[in-house]
Each structure stands twice: as structure tokens, then as C-alpha cells.
Amino acid sequence: MSRRVEDAIEEATAWVYRGIWSVLTGWFRVPAEPPSLPVGPAGDGEHVRSFRPAEGFLRYLKFKFWIALVIIDAAILAGWFFLFLIVPIVALWLAPVAFAFAVLPDVVAYVAIHLRYDTTWYVFSDRSLRIRNGIWVIHETTITFENIQNVSVNSGPIERFFGISNVTVDTAGGGQPGKKSDSGKSVMNYHQGVIEGIDNVNEIRALVLNRVRQSRSAGLGDEALSAAGWSAAHIALLREIRDGLLDR
Amino acid sequence: MNLDARKIERPHPSLLKYYAIVSVLTGPGFLVEFPRLFFKYETLKYRFEDDGMSMSWGVLFRHEINLTYRRIQDIHLSRNIIQRWFGLATLAVQTAAGSASPEMKIEGILESEKLRDYLYTKMRGAREVNENPHDEALTLLREIRDLIRQKSQG
N or C: which end of chain B has fewer CB within 10 A? Predict the structure, then answer.
């Protein structure tokens, strides 16, 4: 019986969520499709793949949400109970308000978690990566592998339990993350791309690092030079010159 | 990919509407914010060339930013709800300079995604460099080859 009720709640939640999603994509112009990356001419063999964070990331966000929910709701309940002991009538009148305060933010947070998960996209081509996230402000970051300075992988104990990690790629240039701007808003670090909550860290790290290793420039806008100063084109030309001299 | 970036010189008029809404949202700050944004819109000019771009604005305090495509580190396209309604976006372009805020914020372009992809293709690492047109050694070697050919023919 309880199983059926749970299923019904799950179905109702999914239905409500689909409604919210269609309102967002329709009225608030949230793109429903993943972002794309321009690739080279056809036949280049360059392919693009896009993916979302791992399932574990959603479970991790929900886990954090449940912890916060238990703490906040326990505080609200304790406060209300305290009031009930002192002035029971006022407490009874305030019961719906306390209930609303306990439940409404939870629903909002729950929807927000799903929206955050559904609007996060990572796109990788052979030469660059693009990260999209955000609901109110949709933010897309594009970085070529050529410009990446370093790659770092972080994961906390709870994140490891859910089998996910965060990969951060940095480009050249400074700035402190979370620095306040003139208008008082916290600024995101623009010289960074954060690939949050993925479970194929080794693959992504290898992919990015291989490209960074292949690059012979410092990633600061200098031209890539070939190792010995001679490319295949030079060698071919030198052969032609030698052959030309031999023919004479 | 059929966007001629060189034709972009002025932001789209809906940027002024967006600025008006933004300054209304600041409440009493409207009196300060709206004239500032109005004059920014009125004087905002873009110039996209083959190897670099520049933007300038300002009446009393004039600003001009120039940068070359090859020095672009990363490109950020962000759209908030109001901007999405107008079809606008903020295209933030970063070089390797040591500041956390972007060097150039391009606003009021309707084809912002196309412009972003245009800048991306001009960025270093987006295309494989097979042959550098400015490679002097290669040019010199070609000349030597041609000279030898002329000599052997003559």
C-alpha cells in the first residue's frame, strides 16, 4: 500500500517538474538542448560529445539537501514546541505558518536541485571544452585545450561515497575567486572551468592532459613551434632542393 | 556560421530597453544608473577586424579596449532572464591578464552565439596550424628552390 502511495507521489512530482520545465523552456527561454561546439571541416575526424554530470551528483546534491532539511526543520519544530509550552494559543495559531516555513523552502530547493542538474552540460570536442550551467543566468564557458595551464581534481568524503569528483581546469591569468566587485556582487573566477560531479574523472583528466602535453606553446598566445624548428614541409622542400641540385 | 562580424558596429536597440529595466530594478539608483547606461548605449561602438577587435564608450570618461583574437584565453556567454527575453547576451572575453573580471564585455548583440563561435574559431587552439603563413624559413627555402629551377632551365 505504502509502495503505491510512494509511486503516486513520485509520479506527481515528476508531472509537476515537467510542468515547471516546460514553463522554463517556453517563457524563460531556457534552452532544452545541449550546447554545441563548432568543429573543423567535415572529414577532419573531429567529434563532439556532450554529457551531464553523473547520476551520483544528483544523489549527492539530494543528500546534502536532506541533511540541511533535517537540521532546519528540527530547529523550526523545536522553536514552535518551545512557544507551545509558554503560550499554547499563539503557538496553535502559528502552526500553519511554521508548517509553511518548514515545507515550502524544501519544495523550492528540491526543484532547484533537479533544475541545476538538468541545466548543467559539458561538451568536449578534440580541441576545446564548453561548460553550461545556471537557470536564472545561463553561463557558458568555452576554453581551448591549448590555453589550459593546469588540471586539478577535487573530491570530498561525501562526494567520494557517491563516486563523483570535480575537475577544475585553469587558464592563464590571475584573480581571486569569490572576490567582491564594485557593486558588491561576488564575481566568479573567469579564468577557470569547473566540471562538477562526474564519475569518469580518469578519462576526462587524461583527455585534457594529453592535449595540454601535445601543445608546444606556453598557452599564452604564442605560436606553436615545431620541436626542431623544421616541419615536414621544410624537409620536403629540402629534398626538392637536393634533388634539383643533383639533376644539374 | 554565416555571420559577418565586421558589419557589427553598434549594439542592437533592445540593449537600451534592457538597460532601462536594469536601472529601474536598482530602485532609487535609477536617477544615477539610467543616465550612465543611456550614455554608454549611445556611445558604444564595436569594431571587429580580421585579427582583432575593439570597443569604445563614454562621454566624460572615455574607454577603449583593444585586443587580438589570438590572445583570447576563454570566452564566456551569459544570459539572464531579462536578456533572454530580448534575445540579448553578455559575451565576456578574457585574455591572460591578471584580473578576475573579464577584459571585454560585449553586450547587445543578437547573434551572440554566432559571434561567440566566430571568436572561437579565431582563438588559438581552435584550428590546427599546419603551415604558418609568416614562416620566413619556409619562404626562403621556396625562393632557393625557384632560383635553382631557373638556373637549371636557363
Answer: C
Kindly report the average pLDDT of chain B as a whole number.
84
A174 confidence band (pLDDT: 50, 70, 90): low
Annotated domain spans of chain B: 5-153
Place of cell 573567469: A190
For B51-84, what is each residue's pLDDT tens digit?
889 999 988 889 899 988 888 888 999 998 899 8
Coil, helix or strand at residue A101: helix
Q: Choose the weakest-confidence range: A37-41, A122-126, A203-207, B3-7.
A: A37-41
Query: Residue A131 CB: number of other CB atoms within 10 A?
Result: 22
Tell me the residues of chain A between 28 and 67 that have a Cβ less than 8 Å away from chain B: 28-30, 37-38, 40
- Model ipTM value: 0.75
Q: Where does residue A87 fall: left (phi above 0), alpha (psi -120 to 50 degrees), or beta otherwise?
A: beta
Chain A CB contacts of B125 below 8 Å: 127-128, 144-147, 215
Residue A38: which of B74, B80, B117 has the nearest Cβ? B117
Q: What is the pLDDT of residues A12-24, one digit of tens each?
A: 777 888 888 888 7
Residue among B73, B121, B125 minimizing CB distance to A191: B73
CATH top-level class of B5-153: mainly beta
The gap between the terminal CA atoms of chain A, to the nearest Å, is 98
The answer to whether A162 touches A63, Cβ cutoff 8 Å, is yes
Collect all residues of chain B within an 8 Å Cβ-Cβ radius of residue A40.
127-128
